[in-house]
Amino acid sequence: MPPIDEYALKPQQIESGLKTIKQRQRNLMLMSFVSISVLIVAAVALFIQQDLVYSFFGLSLTVQQLHIPVSTGELSYHLGNQSDYFFVNFLSFIGWLFLKLVVSFIGAFFLVGFLKKFNFFRIRFQSFVLKFVGWILSFIVLWSGLTYVQYDLKDDDQAAYHKLVHYEKNIQDSRLAHELHELDVADPVKAYLYAQAALLHQPVDRATAIPYVQSLMNAEQNYPAEFREYGFQPEQLWTMQNQLFDKTMTPMAQSVEKQVQQANVVEVIVRWILIAVIVLTLVLSLLLYLLAQQFRSRIVRIEQGMRH
């Protein structure tokens, strides 16, 4: 019968096994961080997904930008060609989301590593829980910082539009009103611009916007052929009517109802997908965390046994 010592594990074997267990624990931690990151992004997206989906279809629940029809002549030429605000906004959101996710995820590791150079944090980050909390806080700080930069960067064109529609109490005091007084512009076009300016006002000036939108509706009903030649944006008319009256009331605005229906279908699908992702990543994060804790406990027991 062979001696018992032949069955005993050699120190080299124990160290090799310990190294493997530590590597697996690090992998579990990394997967847990990835899962938490996806959970945070999905939770944020759930709150803004309706606006995002509507932007993809060129729609908005509230007026977001002043649309200047070509029938305004010199005013349109002075401010230049307008880009597709909603689609550009959609692309900008996707780009910033990707940038914030990558920078925050990777940067959080560097930030935690930097903090570990200080004795105060090095002692506390020996605990997996505190290290994980530190990573989450670093992720949030970096994400918040990039979000601030995102909204702090203002496009020159948007600044010009803001100055054009800004007024304190009376819309006739705005630069837009002064510009229109000097131009030969049809009354429906003026109403179209004034209604948008009132809805862009902070807070929304409903009392001013409603008469102008009603004037637009009357003009479309009484002079439909001329109304179509003004170059109004059907999506903008739909937004104004629904923002003020919660329903679509004129033919031109109703022409985008198919887009609205498609957007509503996609919005419901996206919402349930995001909810499913949140639930799955939450469960996965908890499982990965518990497994990482089990591996950590095994590592502690093995290291204590090796010391004895």
Q: What coarse outline follows from CA principal-axis ratios?
A: elongated
Oligomer: single chain
Number of strands: 0
Distance between the termini: 28 Å
Helix share, percent = over 70%
Alpha plus pi helix count: 13
User: SSE order, as H and E?
Assistant: HHHHHHHHHHHHH
Strand content: under 5%
Cα Rg:
30 Å
Structure description:
Helix 1 runs antiparallel to helix 3 (85-115) and helix 1 packs antiparallel against helix 13. It contains 13 helices and no strands. The protein starts with 10 loop residues before the first helix and ends with a helix. The protein has a domain at 1-59 and 256-308. 76% of the residues lie in helices and 0% in strands.
Short overview:
The chain is built from 13 helices and no strands.
List keywords for this structure.
308 residues, mainly alpha, 0% strand, elongated
Topology:
Blueprint (H helix, E strand, L loop, with lengths): L10 H46 L17 H6 L5 H31 L3 H6 L3 H25 L3 H10 L9 H7 L5 H14 L5 H17 L1 H6 L4 H12 L5 H4 L2 H51 L1
